[in-house]
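User: Fold this; tokens only.

Assistant: Input:
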Amino acid sequence: MNTEQQTTNNEQQSVKPDDGLIVLKNLTRRFGNNVVLDDISLAIEKGKTTVVIGPSGCGKSVLLKHMIVLMRPTLGEVYFKNKRIDNLDDQLLTGVRAHFGYLFQAGALFDSLSVAENIMFPVRQHCQITRFSAVEELVRNKLKMVGLDGLQRFYPANLSGGQRKRVALARAIALDPEVILYDEPTTGLDPIRADTINELILKLKGELGVTSVAVTHDMKSAYKIADRIVMLHHGKIIADGNADYIRNHPDPIVQQFIKGEISKKELEQLHKASVGSSVRLPCDVED
């Protein structure tokens, strides 16, 4: 048995519905003949931050969407608070989803709505509003938490990329969720703005006691915010532990990813590939 197979078998443990706040049990997701998640079992501990890493296309975002049943598994089960949720109808799922906040990769703000209206959106969806003054106070409070109070009347087009991410985060916490799911929270941001998001993730965990799950390629962010890091590869969990454990993991696939290095085989193929230097254009090019 090779190292990768040993790691896969050792890292993934069987789980029970009451092993965590969120539990994925023997989860498989196929798209046609393509198996994206392959018999995944994972328990998310309450009050902790779990970061999911792995190469592009390995199923990180698909895994995240199953936790809130934006996607349903081909096989397997999803539990929240010891209750199975992947088999619920959409009406019942609406109540479950009120316990979750979701920060989408691109923020997913509504361009036609102001900052305040964007933050109000989930409140309007899940609550019967009787006092708009209370909603205005809620919006102000959430914007203060992300350092943007005063931008209520602005529109997304008037904001920087970092500000849009922070408004989207304010919207994600509008209903005081127990769980926040982060899909590539620092993608597209410069290092300083990315670290601002990292600090906000830590702040929300500390002040609100939320359970967080983040998927990312950003190892600096992963090491900073994670209590636990899980790595996916070919639809399987191949590494699972704290930051120090991941840094020193024996699997070369894990080391290649966390160091951001191309493999020797890929490098050889890259250099063997012809760049077409001897091919001439089928026309004359004027100087």
